[in-house]
Write a structure and sequence with these properties.
Blueprint lengths: L1 E5 L4 H10 L5 E5 L16 H16 L3 E10 L5 E2 L13 H12 L6 E12 L4 E12 L15 E3 L11 H7 L1 H19 L1
Parallel strand pairs: 1-2, 1-3
Antiparallel strand pairs: 3-4, 3-5, 5-6, 6-7
Helix pairs in contact: 4-5
Length: 198
């Protein structure tokens, strides 16, 4: 199997991506296998830029094909905030609860529905190429967080066509519709097609 390093230490994200690549000719490992690897500075102004920074940093360090991704929440009424700072919306060391509380606080005086979307940019890099992929899922922010299956803003986000939050959906169901799933399935398909041509 061809080994690919996924530039993350996020266990929830890793679990989702490993599930997406099940049955493929690729073995997904992550920075959790290299716990001494320093935190990657994400100072891009877009999801794609941050994803590329991660992929390039990891590829150049290990010389193994790498995938970087960046994802976040964009809320219409907040001019697409929190956007690229979704993971640190409430501050540099903020956790999911802190970010969720800040989001609800920002929306507290605004009328429902709170239309939003999850966005994911994924970038693959090896010695010969850079491949971009993108995914998004539209939905609404709800005030009462529900579910423990996801992470981040998942308990507050109800995708269009569903009555459950992302946090309430089973992983298999979430992987059918999520922004990360869309981006990584596209990436998997491209990589498999390139492998078949060799």
């Amino acid at each position: 199997m061809k080994k690919i390093i996924f530039a993350t230490k996020n266990k929830g994200k890793l679990r989702e991506v490993k599930k997406i690549f099940e049955g493929s000719p690729f073995q997904i490992i992550s920075l959790l296998d290299y716990i001494d690897f320093p935190e990657i500075k994400e100072d891009g102004i877009s999801f794609r830029e941050n994803a590329l920074i991660k992929a390039r940093t990891v590829f150049e360090h290990f010389n193994i094909p790498a995938i970087g991704d960046d994802s976040g929440l964009e809320v219409e009424q907040l001019k697409n905030a929190p956007g690229v700072i979704s993971a640190r919306y409430a501050g540099k060391n903020a956790g999911d609860d802190d970010n969720n509380k800040k989001l609800l606080s920002e929306l507290s005086g605004l009328p429902e529905p709170h239309n939003a979307r999850f966005v994911c940019a994924a970038v693959f890099m090896d010695e010969t190429k850079i491949i971009d992929s993108y995914g998004e899922v539209n939905g609404k922010i709800v005030k009462d967080g529900k579910g423990y299956n996801g992470f981040g803003y998942d308990p507050l986000f109800v995708p269009d066509g569903y009555n459950l939050t992302m946090g309430e959906l089973e992983l298999d169901e979430k992987n059918k519709i999520s922004h990360r799933s869309i981006a990584f399935k596209r990436l998997r398909n491209i990589l498999e097609q390139l492998m078949e041509r060799k």
